[in-house]
Recover the amino acids of this structure.
């Protein structure tokens, strides 16, 4: 705890996923899954890793923002940060001059997440616990002291947050045992990317069922006839009982969302994810009301910029499923705020994952939510890409996330992967440029 | 019009305003007023200038984002952009990979504004008109074709926008004549910065009255007793009839805003500006309702990230004064969308200005609003800093902006100023570093 942070390195890591249309949807047609990868060095044996996820171009801008923010971290004692984490978080997000270019949103907030996640990784390593265990073992008062409540006091006070946590202390160990045995339920998004041909979708559904998955998400929104055909294929493969989700990735207008989903309601999706602008709380509220009679809920959050937006989504009954993101929000601290607000409004937290390493991170938050906050098992996204680049990749068995055991936030990437995929100088990128497969920006 | 854009240069320009506490408020205690200054070169005689405003640190991140976006502009024919400006604007704001790090907010959107503003500057220069005149002379259909209506169709369709403009065609020339003669009403923010001592406030009020100002804004929010004292001083100086506005720069929680302003209501402020988070539409709606009996309106917008937020502020009656910003929104196109939405909801547009060059830009938008959209004179912020660095600085006479006459968007800075204040290599900064007055980041 006496360690001091001595350096902050950030690396622009990109994977050429656009070559295979992995991750393609109505809005992100050719993503190169990427991350701004942060390494916090200390004068002790502990090193913190954290990152934020992007989809390619622009990742260098986030790295630039990490550089700017790193000046607020370097030279600080770990103890001083952890003793009053909420204040330190405020110092990062409300730096006197940099706040202007957010505030608390977009590039500067993604960069904040990368650094803050690395700080939690250090903390968990110092305590010798996986992050979820650090969180579930922490005294409610201490945990709540890490949250900056600015702008959310009108729906959640620190006292209320402590109350929520205290109420769930009782059966914590029972739930911990359960989760060790059964794991945390996952749904798969890997079958239904928009760029995949029908036969590939069919094949991937079969494989997912064999692996034990019972919940499936399909991308929709570019063409209604295609969507009907693809939903039909998936329902044929998974049968009428298994769970189907749909995801439009912000493709529609408000009224269009309603009309479109009325046509897909026959396939019984439990939710439509991101029907329209992630900023349109009122629009999502209108869509929620209109689709309620069809038993289609609204899910959103992966591009929900901060706790203030989540607050309003909850207040206006504009989301029936709360999709926190480990990196879009300002790291663990702000995710805790949103998880606690969702609990107060009794809205299930079903995190966004996939991308690069989002599964590795967010599994910790879902396990914490189950053990310490909601006491209920929700469902956590799973995408089977790029896990091989992590030192402690997630483990899925029979459609369930297995509890991570190593100290930290599971955020460390392999040195070899970092060297190969650093953009643009990494060896894999140099090969792709030389072979004419991709062009350097 | 056949010109092609051949290069895009961006310069990190900062002014050391923190040395004098110019621009200090409850949230921005020591700003160094700055801008990311863009020069678009073409293969013709026309060059476009545009910029976005920041308050110092972090300006380099916005410059980095401009560099990334500039690749979408370089090599394009001006004609191809202007023939279908809405599509080009969409291409910038929804670039397949970069959209992720916004979308349409924060750093990437500020950078978009700088480039888009420079494109409008070129357009106005090609037509040989000041921007406001380019806009007011344009056929309604053409003007509306520059707007991307994505996510706002539920409150404003292109046809409705054309209708609003057509209805105001009739007396346009009468209003143009009027504005040439009288100018556009300004209010001054220069008297009431939070860092100023009482005597300076008193003195500045006296001077402003002598200059013909009748509307005054004071910063509040750090300490209620200070605020009462400062409001009292200003009312003493300006008398009971002149107009007073208050500005909290996001300092408060929702309930706190209401309680605080009840105590200041006795000074009869027409509005409280930015009481809380700029993202909290529902919060502003609550505050608006609570303060209505006290005749205090709510003003916000300078950090309102995009048209989707403005849409909701208008839908939920959460703003009684709509403060567009020429650089926070994605340039002229998105400002047109917001001005037209505000007209539909009959909410006055009273732009944010000040900073670096915001007065120079936004005067064009207010004049357009008056002549072509609302037909009403509102009030436009004025701060008397840093105008000397512009080739065509705003002219204020008797508390009114005088109509700008030169072709373009008044965005060009003096080459000498650019060289002196480029950060960190400019001569002024080198002097400050050498003298120990400021430290380089």
């Amino acid at each position: 705890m006496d360690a001091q942070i001595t350096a902050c390195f950030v690396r622009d890591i990109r994977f050429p996923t656009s070559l295979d249309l992995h991750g393609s949807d109505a809005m992100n047609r050719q993503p190169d899954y990427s991350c701004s990868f942060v390494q916090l060095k200390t004068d002790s044996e502990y090193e913190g890793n954290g990152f934020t996820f992007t989809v390619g171009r622009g990742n260098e801008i986030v790295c630039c923002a990490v550089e700017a923010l790193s000046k607020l971290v370097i030279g600080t004692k770990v103890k001083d940060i952890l003793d009053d984490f909420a204040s330190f978080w405020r110092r990062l997000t409300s730096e006197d001059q940099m706040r202007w270019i957010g505030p608390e949103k977009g590039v500067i907030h993604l960069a904040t997440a990368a650094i803050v996640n690395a700080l939690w990784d250090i903390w968990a390593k110092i305590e010798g616990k996986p992050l979820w265990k650090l969180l579930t073992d922490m005294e409610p008062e201490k945990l709540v002291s890490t949250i900056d409540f600015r702008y959310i006091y009108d729906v959640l006070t620190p006292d209320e947050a402590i109350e929520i946590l205290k109420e769930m202390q009782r059966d914590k160990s029972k739930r911990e045992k359960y989760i060790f045995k059964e794991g945390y339920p996952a749904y798969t998004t890997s079958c239904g990317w928009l760029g995949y041909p029908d036969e590939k979708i069919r094949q991937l559904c079969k494989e997912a069922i064999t692996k034990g998955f019972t919940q499936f998400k399909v991308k929709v929104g570019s063409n209604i006839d295609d969507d009907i055909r693809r939903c039909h294929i998936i329902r044929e493969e998974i049968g009428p009982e298994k769970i189907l989700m749909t995801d439009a990735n912000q493709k529609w207008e408000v009224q269009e969302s309603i009309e479109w989903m009325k046509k897909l309601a026959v396939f019984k999706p439990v939710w439509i994810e991101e029907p329209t602008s992630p900023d349109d709380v009122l629009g999502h509220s209108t869509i929620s009301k209109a689709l309620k009679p069809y038993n289609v809920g609204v899910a959103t959050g992966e591009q929900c910029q901060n706790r203030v937006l989540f607050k309003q989504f909850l207040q206006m009954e504009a989301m029936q499923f709360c999709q926190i993101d480990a990196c879009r929000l300002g790291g663990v601290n702000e995710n805790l705020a949103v998880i606690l607000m969702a609990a107060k409004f009794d809205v299930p937290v079903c995190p966004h994952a996939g991308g690069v390493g989002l599964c590795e991170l967010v599994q910790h938050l879902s396990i914490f939510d189950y053990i310490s906050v909601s006491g209920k098992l929700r469902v956590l996204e799973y995408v089977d890409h790029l896990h091989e680049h992590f030192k402690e990749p997630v483990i899925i068995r029979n459609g369930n996330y297995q509890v991570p055991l190593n100290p930290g936030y599971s955020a460390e990437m392999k040195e070899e992967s970092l060297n190969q995929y650093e953009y643009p100088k990494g060896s894999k990128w140099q090969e792709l440029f030389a072979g004419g497969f991709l062009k350097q920006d």
Q: What stands out?
A: Chain B touches chain A through 63 residues (CB under 8 Å). The first strand of chain B starts at residue 5 and ends at 14. The two ends of chain B are 42 Å apart (CA to CA). The mean pLDDT of chain B is 96.
